[in-house]
Request: fold
Amino acid sequence: MPMNSGAKVPFLELGGQYRAIRSEVEAAMARVVASQRFVLGPEVEACERALADYVGSAHAVGVSSGTDALIVALTAEGIGPGDEVVTTPFTFFATAGAIARVGATPVFADIDPATLNLDPATLAERVTERTRAVVPVHLFGQMAELPPILEIAREHGLVVIEDAAQAIGAEREGVRAGTAGRHGCFSFFPTKNLGGYGDGGLVVTDDASRASTLRALRVHGQSSRYHHRFVGGNFRLDALQAAVIAAKLPHLERWTDARIANAKRYHRLLGDFAARSGGRLALPATVAEGHASNQAAGRHVFNQFVVRLADPESEPHRSPGDRGERPNLRDRVRKRLARAGIGTAIYYPVPLHLQPCFAHLGYRAGDLPASERAADEALALPIFPELAPDQIERVAQSLREALVEG
Ligand SMILES: *Cc1c(COP(=O)(O)O)cnc(C)c1O
Reply:
């Protein structure tokens, strides 16, 4: 088999990007060190202004991580014990973890299997008189179907907090990720599309009074020095991270275009094969899809390129980690790709409603079937902007061979 020939393709490699912009980021970092202003200050303010402009929001507040962005936004809305917040179980843990950390109860709706994003119909079913907010996630860089979500929120008086950690620059129907809800939360974790050199995050909002609450919350709820309106925390964005992020921001459009070009290349190489695979291979849409009429209106920014690999005859796993008698198609293909030197990742192997830490919420395997199936079938292929065309060809070729083996 030709599968062991050729160079390895890493799942993600950040070094190439660093080498390309090294002088710019190092100058930015040196400027911060020379100034000896490491906490908030002008670098953070400049970064916030640039990000507010890019995202298309009136106010942007830098915080310590994407997780803390969610915690600060939920806290700013006074959400806490006794409150329910509806979200998707098919996301990074932080989405639901932040809800639990403020003392509220995460309530899980199911996903739309076509987009892997929160399904508005099941969201509507989950709303009770205790529901205070909904947290749609723009998963993998594709925006959730916001219009019906916003409509349900309006109807029931819910706050919308967008988890846009994976979706900076994503658009749909002229709306940019993070700007449709009351708050939009972003992450600068190094693997995100705009990654810092450590942890960092951002909350955006169009509401000036919310913005001032967010700013207070990140410094222990302080209104003026040593006077505390409420209990916040230390949720500040480092000046060093702000300088790095601001230096990288002018490159983001180019990197996003490269991710989209890579996704289109996968489609050219694998589209026909997927169409003839009898449902065993499904590719993500190359645009943020919604209704057929406005497909072209969206921009999927491909933080991840996640294909689905389905055993047509198999049942979803009955419990997390239950791999049955034989590994499923996704796990078999992943192992073969690893042998061929192709890096892949699984986002996310266990949906959040089946996590041990949420066992007390009483969900059972089978409750959210679309999410459980996605957890069994999703496989992320390399998509980072610096991938070369021949590397993508190698991934596609190896994936075809691995699937032919069955
Ligand atoms: C990365 C991520 C977060 C958390 O961001 P951190 O900066 O790692 O804390 C939250 N939600 C989603 C969907 C993410 O991908």
